Amino acid sequence: MKQPFRFSRDYKQEDTVISVKDIKIGGEFFVLAAGPCAIENQEQYYDTAKLVKEAGANVIRGSVYKPRTSPYSFQGLGTEGLKLVRDLGEDLAIVVETEVMDTRDVQVTAEHVDIIRIGARNMQNFSLLKEVSKVDNPIILKRGMNATVDEWLNAAEYLMQHGNESIILCERGIRTFETTNRNTLDLTLIPYLKSKTHLPIIVDPSHATGRRELITPASKAAIAVGADGLLIEVHNCPEKALCDGKQSLTPDGFQTLCAEIFPYLDQEKRILSGWQDGA
Ligand code: PEP
Ligand code: MN
Prior knowledge:
Layout: E1 18-20, E2 23-25, E3 31-35, H1 42-55, E4 59-60, H2 81-91, E5 95-99, H3 106-112, E6 115-118, H4 126-132, E7 139-142, H5 149-160, E8 167-171, H6 189-196, E9 201-203, H7 205-209, H8 215-224, E10 229-233, H9 251-261
Parallel strand pairs: 3-4, 3-10, 4-5, 5-6, 6-7, 7-8, 8-9, 9-10
Antiparallel strand pairs: 1-2
Helix pairs in contact: 1-9
Bound molecules: phosphoenolpyruvate and manganese (II) ion.
């Protein structure tokens, strides 16, 4: 008989719960990842991270390898920046994540960060997926901007082929005919995917909308449909950001977002409650 795919509910019925440092992700455990789009320098990264941690984030996001549309835009600090990520994770005792884009950077990235992220543009970079499948770190796999669910889940299977079950799917909006917002956030997929896969599914309302003012409503909607977490861009001074300033919350804005969503989460364990109970 054909073996079911590892991502599927036929392979494993219960929700996957990922343990990393002192947090859990998936099942009843909600993850709130926040931080700058790109790590620009130590001050910007630390300032932003401290503020979002204080507000309630339990993972710090931030990229050192940036996939930019223009070759003349800021490309990120590169491998040099990984030390900053590791130091911040230790100094603030918090889980850190970053994106990897190149097969040659996978091992060194895995050694410096807790969670590795594969960006939308690389969701079907099969050489990269195969290389990342060799590491044990939890992996955030973003949905490609024109990927079907089937393609996305197959990409997850690439990452799981050697036994790593710590995969977090991240819906970040897809390209459609509609150009009002940066992308079209495909929220109905969350409950659908939950029936197909045991993997946690989070939502990135920043890249999905491209607009700061839409992040909070999109986050609430994501929680309402059962997302296991959020990935949000925050900058200590968005008007000076080298990347994605328009879709980055200020630290104050992030605090307001937290105040609006926390009533629906158990504060200590971050167990989802409220919306699901019909509150
Ligand atoms: C990011 O999260 O930093 C990013 C580049 O997003 P995406 O891969 O979804 O475009
Ligand atoms: Mn960004």
